């Protein structure tokens, strides 16, 4: 059984995109881009943030997954290199 979202993809996408943009701002302000992994994730985040949400359902879901994965990985990397405090 597939879970159905209660929010349209464009609402979810906007929230994820904004969260990713905040993480990029934190990375840049804390000079995390000196770390190669963080720099690669910041580049991926900027690329995804610039891409519009696709119109097709499956394409939109794939885009949302990439946004979520990148936000999670960037958050974890910023935590690992002490640019963010670890979440409780």
List the helices and strands and how they pair.
Layout: H1 9-29, H2 36-50, H3 57-80
Describe this structure in words.
This protein has 3 helices and no strands. With 88 residues, it is mainly α. The model has no long low-confidence stretch (mean pLDDT 86).
Summarize it.
With 88 residues, this protein is mainly α. The protein contains 3 helices and no strands.
Strand residues, percent: under 5%
Shape verdict: elongated
Q: What's the SSE pattern?
A: HHH
Helix/strand structural class:
mainly alpha
Distance between the termini: 31 Å
Please state the average pLDDT score: 86
Our count of helices gives: 3
Helix content: 55-70%
Uncertain segments = none
List how many beta strands DSSP finds: 0
Radius of gyration: 14 Å
* Major sheet size, sense and barrel closure: none
Keywords:
88 residues, mainly alpha
